[in-house]
Specification:
The protein is of the alpha+beta class. It has a single domain, classed as Orthogonal Bundle (Tetracycline Repressor, domain 2), CATH 1.10.357. It contains nine helices and nine strands. Strands 1-7-6 form a three-stranded antiparallel beta sheet. A hairpin with a 2-residue loop joins β3 and β4. α6 packs across α9. The longest helix has 19 residues. The chain is globular, with a radius of gyration of 18 Å.
Amino acid sequence: MTKIEYIKARLEEKKFRADLESVVTSVDSLIPENESDFSKLGKFGLYPADKCVPFETNQKKPFYELDNMAMSPIKDPSTWLHYGDYTFRQIEILYIMARMDSAEAHEWLRDNLFQGCRVDAKKKRQYKCRFKGLQRADWKEIQNEWMKYCLNLKYRDNALFRKVLHSTDKFPVEDATDTNYASNRYWGAELIEFRGRRYYFGCNVLGKLLAELRKNKGKLQYTLPQDFHIFGKPVLDL
């Protein structure tokens, strides 16, 4: 079995495929044509583990600061994030806010999660359920572009994040090995063994964006729709 054949076989797994369909418009579009496609943002791949630097939502693990759920230290304002007049300590808050096309939804999330609070699974579920009918119809198509914006902002504001990101030249990988969500194989990758060698298997969109962010020193080019608003107003320029 080749690497491409392995990827195709995994993406044919019924549950895995169904879970991915909740994240992307077309699962088939994630299948690479050749190994050179592994590096493309919207493609699955197998990445040699010895050339990767994994990170996860665990403060005790190295490179924790690269994770979107990472909390900036409360005693270190140089790591806090800012959007307009609002200060927050976790980029995931800003990212999930834009999933809904509603100033009311954004204000609810701001009141519940901005100003030093952290994102937890319960609050995310509440947000998605409470405002389910207000999710942007084009969210699957634009989520990567919004992630670029969020990472640019994190790079701009968080000194510790910049330091950690530039402390290695290895390929960042959001480690999804111990998670049960297929979406984590889209944003990250899981550790597997293939033909006697360890690889990270996944699309690893977040890791690829971090590598590009590092290369370009905090500048990811993004394109958002004209009607893309936060708090009912156009997104702020960075």
